[in-house]
Specification:
alpha/beta; eight-stranded mixed β-sheet; 16% strand
Length: 395
């Protein structure tokens, strides 16, 4: 139950502020005004849990400038004490990518830089007052990330979304800021691009997001990249996080096409994703780059249980590497293969899904099986490891 404070406004959120200095406290007061019941002074990191137990606040704003490690340590303790309904907001004087990722992994819903993100902080507090815990029903985020260019990331992202869309509300968010082509793959004209959303990030809510997506005939919603490369922006992790979070509040599944680049967008997406589909093809360069991706994910400290290895364009008759080769060199199993299907090029050319071209094709069948990777349904093991070769990496 939301705490009540008879001395404050009836529709104001109860807020605890942790580990900030007098200047930051003044910025918070100026930003929130009468929208929140604010304490007279902030509490220390050491006293935060005691304050949460006593006050049962709607929002905890934690400073990341004083002691980032302590701020990260606090988040799961507060969530364990107060439950998932509490809104955790990280406050910093700068949008440092490492701090943003650490905050997301710890459980903070927003990362705010004042005064630039004043509207975002007001929005977060407003949601804490009126959302009645709706984030408990937030959708799941699926990051589709390629080991290298040309492995079919966009094709698989769009077609996976197409398999989910008959039953679920699904949005594909194009996070390939280099050559993202989700809209082109589905022959869509975008009302707004993700660049437009970034420029108006302070007004981002479910209504704005709904007005920015294009809708495919299969009911897939798409938030895409601008057609003009000059309009594409360097991705910022905090902006990507806000867009993905907003989409997860509106859709049951958010499929993030991360392309194959290693940038703030892809790293942010895999950090917040519930499922990471790592796409490779059965050739030496792609498998080597997959190994590098797996090493990078391990250094980020992400749970291995979230990662699924997908071998695309699989044909055991022509594959340079067998499934046994791939699994030995990556020291992990292949979760699923997707057949090398000649109908894929026709589907892309027509802006269609593969199932619309040939529902009974091997590729369409395999993509249908991919749904189990994100829904938890059992996937029949149809793989048969072939052949043997020495390790590629000299390990």
């Amino acid at each position: 139950m939301r705490s009540q404070n008879p001395s404050g406004p009836s529709n104001a959120a109860s807020v605890i502020v942790v580990g900030v200095d007098a200047r930051a406290m003044g910025q918070i007061r100026e930003t929130l005004g009468t929208e929140a019941v604010l304490p007279t002074t902030p509490v220390s990191y050491d006293d935060a849990l005691t304050a949460v137990r006593r006050q049962r606040p709607d929002v905890v704003i934690t400073g990341f400038d004083g002691d980032p490690e302590e701020a990260v340590r606090l988040a799961p303790l507060i969530l364990n004490e107060a439950g998932a309904k509490i809104h955790l907001v990280a406050l910093s004087s700068g949008a440092d990518p490492d701090r943003i990722r650490a905050a997301m992994r710890a459980g903070y819903r927003e990362f705010v830089v004042l005064p630039a993100d004043a509207e975002l902080l007001r929005q977060a507090v407003h949601e804490a007052t009126f959302s009645d815990g709706r984030d408990e029903d937030a959708g799941e985020v699926v990051a589709v990330w390629g080991s290298k260019g040309g492995v079919g990331t966009t094709f698989l992202a769009t077609n996976l979304a197409g398999e989910l869309s008959p039953v679920h509300r699904v949005c594909v968010v194009d996070l390939d800021f280099a050559m993202g082509d989700v809209a082109a793959f589905l022959d869509l004209t975008l009302p707004q691009s993700i660049a437009d959303v970034f420029r108006n990030i302070g007004r981002l809510d479910e209504r704005m997001l709904a007005g920015s997506v294009a809708v495919h005939g299969s009911k897939i919603h798409v938030l895409g990249q601008p057609v003009d490369l000059e309009q594409r922006e360097e991705p910022r992790g905090d902006l990507v996080m806000r867009v993905v979070t907003a989409a997860a509040r509106s859709y049951q599944y958010v499929v993030a096409d991360c392309g194959s680049t290693l940038d703030e967008a892809s790293v942010t997406a895999i950090t917040v994703a519930d499922h990471i589909l790592l796409i490779t093809t059965p050739d030496i360069p792609s498998v080597k780059d997959t190994w590098r991706r797996l090493q990078f994910i391990d250094k980020l400290g992400l749970e291995k249980e979230r990662i699924r290895l997908v071998v695309n364009r699989w044909d055991k008759r022509t594959a340079q590497l067998s499934l046994d080769d791939i699994q030995q060199n990556l020291s992990r199993k292949v979760d699923i293969t997707v057949a090398d299907d000649r109908g894929a090029l026709k589907a892309i050319a027509e802006g269609s899904l593969l199932r619309e071209i040939d529902r009974k094709s091997e590729g369409a069948r395999d993509i249908g099986r991919m749904v189990g990777l994100v829904t938890g349904e059992e996937i029949a093991d149809e793989s048969k490891p072939q052949g043997f070769m020495s390790r590629l990496f000299g390990r």
